Amino acid sequence: MKCPECRKEMQEGVVQSAGPIFFTTKEKKNWLFPNLAVKDEILLSSRNWVRPTCRAYCCANCRKVVLEYEEPKNREKGRAARKK
Ligand SMILES: [Zn+2]
Prior knowledge:
The chain is of the alpha+beta class.
């Protein structure tokens, strides 16, 4: 992936956390879990029960990180597949 600022190739990796990683337009007191009923909160991480992880691309020059997230239905598929 090319950096949106400098257009150089970004370093591929992951962002991980002890809890679910989510995007929200408003900071809030209960920041541990996203409210998925609200449109402006998006769960970004998958593998949330064991190791919340997002695929990510980093540009150290511009200090930018771009995250990728999956459609919620794909996340559920992954979880169902692991249970079998
Ligand atoms: Zn850059």
